């Protein structure tokens, strides 16, 4: 029979495939400054198209995608920003995420175009990805991601550590843009920060710190933590953000090197993904894990119990944990060196 009826529906798969296209439409709206024009002022599709020099009948379904994504509100035939768009997608907002979104889309595209080959054992060009961390747009993107995400929660977590007011020196391993260090230093005017990263990254990052007025309080130092060690017993605080996963195959060794860099009584703080097998966000977690493994890492997730066990074996004390967001993937963990 030619007209056999399937037992199940394929609609959910088709919907998932279309979501990839929809995401690119959202990115185009950001690049066209659609949200800047719709901040506090409603436009119909024709009027907005005229403002932007676009074709109205082509722009209208883009606006409808943005409504479906809860990035715009529709009032009759007019559109205006939702609260999410106002906070994260207007270019003048403190929490603007445009470059962060471009970074995510660009990195994903580099991998998704060759998933089949990578599953068969091919390799991502790690030299190219390492070099990309030093570009101005990448630094801006990672900084935006921090400001719109974990940054305020991490700083609040750190400043409540016992003895924080007496800290004199901190370092951030793989600190890239230096924003976490600058934000922590704002809370303690007597601290100096050192940001360690790959040599080609620190040159650009130092310029950003200087521009924001932290040039005399932050030192950028080249360091490949995969091969090199920190200076011994130098820091009251050592921080890592989404760095430890790169050392998951020998996490004990990496944490022992971190312990070497801490003064007695110093604190280690990590912010990273956790809860891989917990309920919720299954598609996001599976996709993130696939992306991570295709790039040659064993996992992007470090579970709380695993990290606590290693820290305790290295004589860390007063270990404390807190989620970055109640419903998110991030976990913050801190331990004090005995």
TrEMBL record:
Pfam families attached to this UniProt entry: Dimerisation (PF08100), Methyltransf_2 (PF00891)
GO molecular function, one term: protein dimerization activity
GO biological process, one term: methylation
Entry superkingdom: Bacteria
E.C. number(s) listed in UniProt: 2.1.1.4
Keywords, comma-separated and alphabetical: Methyltransferase, S-adenosyl-L-methionine, Transferase
O-methyltransferase dimerisation domain residues: 22-91
InterPro entries in the cross-refs: COMT-like, COMT_C, COMT_dimerisation, SAM-dependent_MTases_sf, WH-like_DNA-bd_sf, WH_DNA-bd_sf
Descriptive protein name: Putative Methyltransferase type 12
Lineage: Bacteria, Pseudomonadati, Thermodesulfobacteriota, Desulfovibrionia, Desulfovibrionales
